[in-house]
Amino acid sequence: MTAPVVESSKPERRSVLNWFLGAGILGWAVSVLYPVLRYLRPLSETGAGAPLKLTADEMATLGKSHFVIARAGTRKVIVFEAAGELRALDAKCTHEGCTVQFVPGDSLLWCACHNGKFDLDGRVLSGPPPRPLTKWVATREGNDVVLAMEKA
Amino acid sequence: MRGLLPVLLLLGQAAPAPAPEDGKLPKSVEALFQEKDKDGKLILGDTDRAYLKKLPPHTLDLIAKDAEALTLGGARHLKVILTLDLSSQAAAIVFSDNCILCHVDPESQKKIHLFSADPKASQSNELLNLKSFLSDVHFRRGLSCAGCHGGSPEKDVMTSDIAARWPKADVRHSDRTWIPEFCARCHADPSFMRGFNPSLPTDQLSKYKESRHGVLLLQEKDSKAAQCVSCHGVHGIRGPKSRQSKVHPQAIPETCGHCHADAAYMAGYKKDDGTPLPTNQLEQFKQSVHGKALLEKGDLGAPACNSCHGNHAAMPPKVSAVSQVCRTCHSQNGTFFDGSKHKQVFEEHHWPECEKCHGKHDIAKATDMLISDAPDGLCGSCHAQNAKDNPECNATARYFRSTLLGLAATRQTLRPEAEDLAERGLDADPVLASIEELSEAIVQTRSRVHTFDRGGFDQGAKLGREAAAKTETLVSAARNEQHYRRNGLLVSIGLMSFLAVVMGLKIRELGRRRRAERDRRSP
Amino acid sequence: MTGAPHTEASPPVGDRLYRWLDARFGVGKLVQWAEHKEVPVGGHSMVWYYLGGTTLFFFTVQLVSGVLLLMYYQAGEATSYESIRFITTKVPFGWLVRSIHCWSAHLMILSLVVHMFSTLILKAYRKPRELTWLTGFFLFAIALGFGFSGYLLPWNELSFFATAVGTDSVKSVPVVGQWLLEVMRGGPDVTINTLYRFFALHVVILPLVMVGVLAGHLIFIQVQGMASGMAHQRPDRPGLRFFPDFLVRDLLLWLVCLIVLAVLVYLLPYGPGIPGVEWELGRKANPLAPAYPGIKPEWYFLWVYQLLKEFPPHLFGMEGPQAALLVVTVLMGIWALVPWLDRRASKGQPSPMFTDLAIAAIIFMAYLTLKAWDIGGKGAPGKLPDPRSTAWTCAWITLGLASAIAVLRLLAYRQRWMFLSGAALLQVVLNGVFGVDYLIAGAIAVAFAIGGVVLSSRQTPRQLEVPR
């Protein structure tokens, strides 16, 4: 009868290894599942296709001064009330890029940098600006104001 | 009757000759195609034939008549006109105007009276450039040679009619004083000009008479002074909106500089205080921020000479008026200045407000370094003399400068941070938007320097500091996100590497088991 | 006597489950087969057996990350670009998912290409595995289709123009060219309609086709077992057990790939910055804007793109692009039919010509790809790169690469049959170093290749050096 080849430590070593393997697999699973689950959790803000709305601060300013310079992505839009209706134009002056202001008394938009003046449709009235301001569309929806670029 | 219109010319034609049959050119024209030059080559060729065939019948008739009447002197003459490649309408006008026809004929005109397409090449009179004449604004509106010079274009010889309008040679050659009145015959007559361009002003002559050029020419009989032709040209006049016009905003500096930058020409002219008139204005202007904007960037909103000096009433603006001129564009800075303590001081000293600090022709881009309370700096040198017992003035200057430099430096460090964040895949848009706000605040703050008052200045500086702080907050938030990502990565790599190591050990263990199995099977 | 006493307590859960399934589905047979599945050992490095698995791994990563992206992506004129911007900026770990998807796409194709070349060189395609090669070829084409269709989905400037240029060549297909172009683009020009079609292709059509063809490919491998090296290469050794030995090693490699992927995503979120391997979002596509110069398709298409540029406007009565497309079709046809063309390998005989074909293909595509990158062209903003200068530099680089390969083959593997790779190199040298027109150089090279093939076929097989 052959002597039994027994290495008594082997089974224990194997089970320790298996235990580590299980722990390792668990660790791997956590590092993969954690980002995935966070990714899938629904967000408080709506996705990309959501319409551009004025923030609460911007709405407050609009209510107080009857115009506001709002952010739309990387662009700035000036939203103002004229003759009871809400209008919006690109706020970047077409001359050197300064932000224009609304001058309700003269019914125009004024750029302080070089005294450029635009009418309420964005057309150049006087001064160095070479092109009119791009038009945007501002519509009231309930308590919000929604901004969109004017369709070509 | 002034202003002969081409309609009259065309109506004055006799009944047209019978139309050519089967695409052939009229006989008189065909005959020209036989002419050879002194080298024996035919002067007119197939392209000329093709061009003539494309013309409408009535125009071809005109040419045939001209050839018969010998107002079209020969093939060389016709060739000159054909090389212009005129439209059929322009061709009709040219071939019915005998003034043009005669004066274009290289064989019958003296060089001094010859209109040619390339005066340099034909060594003829530079003022008589046929190509530019055909785009001349008067010609295009129907005012041809006879309109200014008089005479009748349908006659084939010059008559004494011309003397009725065109001054005699001795008058013309004595000096230039006759020119302004000559042009003003039409241009100062509102009812006449209304028939052509109702919105064109008609006050140029009266303005000119008050200008320095007008005074020199009309009162002191100095023919070196500029008159209508010096700036507008004569046979190639175009409106200021055309880029080819001598009075287009981008061409005006060179037009004025033609005399005013020529030291030899301007020698002898003096300013009111007796010092010689400088001739470096054009050079200075070209280096200035306005010159660069107008001439290099093409910004037509930037001022040319006439924006500050006026067109026909050209005079240097008086000291008191300079700043009013600057205010037409820089109104906000003007308003700030008016409310500042400098206003009174400048008025007392009769200093030309804006010009005192910024210059006039050599206005450089105003940088923060301009504000300097050093003894030789802009603020310091003046304060040393005029605000000796008021250290507050220099202190304010220092404050302005350090605040502005601080804001600019902050922006300088934050911009590359934003770019770095974008490269690392973080959302840099809010940071860039905030930096833009900072830039705008800096512009506002710089403008508010003109209040020369800490309170007024701080209204802008406050916005700047807020924007800078906001940007820094956003940047550090983004950096935190970056570290979060890096740490997360390290953690997950750590966990996965641990698993990898354990798997490696498992593989080794498996290998040992296999070997043991194999050994058992084949001892 | 056996060992320790066997208690009659209830058997372990695993056992019970196994017996339950076996009674119903006969899983015992499956387990038996699995226990005997082996991977051949010896003859060549085991490394090559793992590449199919890594390709499959990266494809799985694409599936998972793609599905995740699909949760937030919205195809549309006003939403494609914006939704991807939203994912990368606002969605937690959105940047991670998108970057993984882009990196893994390139790594998958890289792995696929190496897998393809290794099976070619090791002649795993020989009888009875011809269909495995053919399905693999289709998988390659599908993967390229995935890459091309997915590239447009961000609807940014880069992808818009790359798609316009890429789809343009389709109109050179005879007879149906124009129709094919309009069906692909959803109209005569690239518009949002093109994106809708590409989206359907990328997300539904190609995945279904891929899974089908992949199933075929994998079934063939399971049924036939993995290919072993050529007989003369393979010593007699027992193989490596697939379950669990090879599988564990496979999984470990996949884990390492995942770690590498994670590191790449962190360090280079928008790619390594090589033209044709970058995916910064950039600006939204503007169909009315002129294309910007230097636009390049993705790296795996560069050789075709460059080849198209080498053809003159008209050639032998055909339009240049048509002729180029014909050449590409012929080359692809040869590639797909290699198992049937290589009769020697199918008989188990040494087939150095086809080994050399693989090297020739590498040289051919490398030179064109390098040229497409304008390497050595001394281009600058506002200055177009000089094609002569580019060709010169790329030729020398290719020559260096080819020489290194040749030396390796000669010394390590004692391979001496080099007529095809020599022909490819001849074309490179003639065109790049001596300035000969690319197509004329190609014609000369083809003549050289034919000569070499005819010459070597006259020699008996024994005269050919047997590679190790």
Helix % of chain B is: 55-70%
Low-confidence segments of chain B, given as residue ranges, are 12-17
Output mean pLDDT of chain A: 84
Distance between the termini of chain A: 96 Å
* Arithmetic mean pLDDT of chain B: 87
State the order of secondary-structure elements of chain A, H for helix, E for strand.
Answer: HEHEEEEEEEEE
Strand content of the residues of chain A, in percent? Answer: 25-35%
- Order the strands across the largest sheet of chain A as they lie in space: 1-10-9-4-3-2
Class from helix and strand fractions of chain B: mainly alpha
Structural class by sheet pairing and helices of chain A: alpha+beta
Shape of chain B: flat
Report on the biggest sheet of chain A.
6 strands, antiparallel
CA radius of gyration of chain B is 38 Å
Task: Give the termini separation of chain B.
Answer: 133 Å
What would the principal axes of the Cα set say about the shape of chain A? Answer: elongated
Based on CA atoms alone, the radius of gyration of chain A comes out at 31 Å
Question: Tally the helices of chain B: what do you get?
Answer: 31
Catalogue the unreliable spans of chain A.
none
Query: What quaternary form is this?
Result: heterotrimer
Biggest interface between chains: A-B, 30 and 31 residues
Summarize the structure in words:
The complex is a heterotrimer of chains A (152), B (523) and C (468). Chain A has 152 residues and is an alpha+beta fold. Chain A contains two helices and ten strands, in the order αβαβββββββββ. Chain A has helices at residues 9-40, 56-65; strands at residues 52-53, 67-72, 75-82, 85-90, 101-103, 108-111, 116-118, 124-126, 135-141, 144-149. In chain A, strands 1-10-9-4-3-2 form a six-stranded antiparallel beta sheet. In chain A, strands 5-6-7-8 form a four-stranded antiparallel beta sheet, with no helix packed on it. The mean pLDDT of chain A is 84. Chain B has helices at 6-11, 27-32, 46-54, 57-69, 75-82, 88-95, 98-104, 119-122, 130-134, 137-140, 145-149, 161-165, 169-174, 178-187, 190-194, 204-210, 212-219, 228-232, 252-260, 263-266, 281-287, 289-296, 305-309, 319-327, 331-338, 341-349, 353-358, 378-386, 391-423, 429-448, 454-521. In chain B, α16 packs across α17, α21 (281-287) packs across α22 (289-296) and α29 (391-423) packs antiparallel against α30. Chain B is 60% helix and 0% strand. Chain B is flat. Among the domains of chain B are: 1-158, no CATH class; 369-495. The termini of chain B are far apart. The longest helix of chain B is centred in the C-terminal third of the chain and has 68 residues, at 454-521. Chain B has 31 helices and no strands. By secondary structure, chain C is mostly helical. Chain C has a two-stranded antiparallel sheet with strand order 1-2. Chain C has a two-stranded antiparallel ribbon with strand order 3-4. In chain C, β3 (314-315) and β4 (318-319) form a beta hairpin. The longest helix of chain C has 33 residues, at 192-224. The radius of gyration of chain C is 25 Å and the shape is globular. The chains are: A alpha+beta (152), B mainly alpha (523), C mainly alpha (468). At the A-B interface, α1 of A face α30 and α31 of B.
